[in-house]
Design goal:
The radius of gyration is 16 Å and the shape is elongated. With 99 residues, it is mainly alpha-helical.
Length: 99
């Protein structure tokens, strides 16, 4: 059985919960790096903020590909990946602000 990619009836609460948990965990790690950058004025910790978000975004997009290959509900993971990459772009100024 193959899902049509244009079909709008994509509903998988378990997949959504796992994607949200992943995004929250990545943001929490980036938040810890941000707090370290603010407290210690550390350039390395400031650089880690966008790096963690970028790695998390790429990881979510890789997971989207894996779910797509398994014919699952992949747009949930794709959305998570793009959200993290967008957040990474917003946080690109953190190392400059710390320096």
């Amino acid at each position: 059985m193959s899902n049509n990619d244009v079909e709008k009836r994509w509903h998988d609460p378990v997949m959504f919960r796992s994607a949200v948990t992943y995004v929250v965990a990545v943001i929490a790690v980036a938040g810890v790096a941000f707090a370290a950058a603010v407290v210690w004025h550390s350039l390395i910790a400031g650089i880690l903020v966008p790096v963690v978000l970028f790695a998390g975004g790429v990881g979510a997009l890789v997971q989207a590909y894996r779910v797509w290959k398994a014919e699952g509900v992949w747009p949930i993971w794709q959305g998570a990946g793009w959200f993290l990459l967008l957040l990474m772009l917003v946080c690109l100024g953190v190392p400059v602000a710390v320096a």
